[in-house]
Amino acid sequence: MIQKPSIPKGTRDFLPAEVVKRNYIFDTIREVFRLYGFQPIETPAMENLSTLMGKYGEEGDKLLFKILNSGDFISKVPEKIIDEKDSGKLTPQISEKGLRYDLTVPFARFVVQYRNDLTFPFRRYQIQPVWRADRPQKGRYREFYQCDVDVIGSDSLLNEAELLQIVDDVFGRLKINTVVKVNNRKILAGIAEIIGEHNRLTDITVAIDKLEKIGLEKVNQELAEKGVAVEAISRLQPILDLSGNTSEKVGQLEAILSTSETGMKGVSEIKTLFEYIERMQLTAQVELDLTLARGLNYYTGAIIEVKTTDMDMGSICGGGRYDDLTGIFGLPGVSGVGVSFGAERIYDVMEQLSLYPQKSAESTRVLFVNFGEKEEAYCLSLLSKLRQAGVNSEIYPESAKMKKQMTYANKKEIPFVVLAGESEMGSGKFTLKNMTSGEQHVVAAEELIKIVIQS
């Protein structure tokens, strides 16, 4: 029986036209990263599970794709563990590696492993795929690309401000209107402290992070199920409802968190960050959002999330400060901060809003029609000259019917077609047809190159 071709749920194939659009996004982001002095690195698709586990919280660990050990991996597992049917006990016995969940934890491992080869503060960018065993839905995939940019080895809040400038620059070039929301993990820690639940910071942040998705009532229900006291939940409500502009919210927080040293440090950092933002005059709207928590355990300071105002879509960029992620791998006290651009969601936004440029650097610009061996030989010299001039060009590989070759050009949206028959060969010229306007002119080789380049 012939098997119907398919791919796993939550993954996608991309046709050439789609890859061209994705590369436009990657190239734009990469260009901005370089402009700010960041250098590229790459890490393996799979990491040791010991590197990944425990870095993303309990829910994150559940979304890790584990890779089965090679060979007869089950024969060495004690029957008792198999009989218990406890995946938590069985997994370490049959799997030592997993697909990376994000690029930040592998980056921390990378920094520790190559610390003697790096210059600190180390400014790195990385554009590679990651995998999460999430439930596929609109804008959420199991395999997707992240475009990360980080500074590690510096405590300065100027780094956060520059990352926001990068965010503003990237989305400005992509013509996506955005709102940037910021918060600070220390403020959240201070809130947990003043409501009497400082030991439940993770539970509180994980729940608050779902506020926009599931609503306040269900967030409160989840907090109660996690064991947060009813009185603490009640004291949390007015804090989540704080209103006003950033300055007004900061003033209210200073009063609320006055007894929390950690919380006041977070407020001070937010004030400094917004002072930088004001000087940088960003195009995007930047606002303080106390409900922004980003449930990842490794954040310790600023938290950043970016959404488009053009359509209903989840966050298209996010990140924050992590003070001691490298400490897990034996290099304590090295602070870092970074943001990650979600390429898949950015692609979907640009596709729906038709934001891609019509002219692509990757598409064929000129097609030579093939009339036969003599005509083919006549065209090859000009074909080479066009390519040397940086013009993407191709010749139809055989002397097929004219209609077939022109249909080929139309389907590939090639803007120019070159025809050379006996008449053109006799005069040493070529007929250049503009496929958009339908106009065609007999021109010499150099003039043809000039017309195509200038168009």
Kindly report the CATH topology of the largest domain: BirA Bifunctional Protein, domain 2
Q: Domains counted in the coordinates: how many?
A: 3
Task: Find the CATH superfamily of the largest domain.
Answer: Bira Bifunctional Protein, Domain 2
Helicity level? 40-55%
- The number of helical elements comes to 19
Largest sheet: 8 strands, mixed
Coarse shape: globular
CATH class bucket of the largest domain: Alpha Beta
Name the CATH architecture of the largest domain.
2-Layer Sandwich
Strand element count: 16
Distance between the termini: 52 Å
Flag low-confidence runs: none
Strand content: 15-25%
User: Gyration radius, to the nearest Å?
Assistant: 28 Å
Q: Biggest sheet: strands side by side, in what order?
A: 1-5-6-11-10-9-7-8
* Mean residue pLDDT: 92
Structural class: alpha+beta
Summed up, what is this model?
The protein is α+β, with helices and mostly antiparallel strands and 455 residues long. The protein has helices spanning 16-35, 49-52, 57-62, 79-84, 87-94, 104-113, 158-173, 185-194, 201-208, 211-214, 216-225, 230-240, 246-256, 261-280, 343-353, 373-388, 402-411, 422-427, 445-454, and strands spanning 39-40, 46-48, 66-68, 95-99, 122-131, 143-152, 178-184, 285-288, 302-308, 317-322, 336-342, 366-368, 393-395, 416-419, 430-434, 440-443.
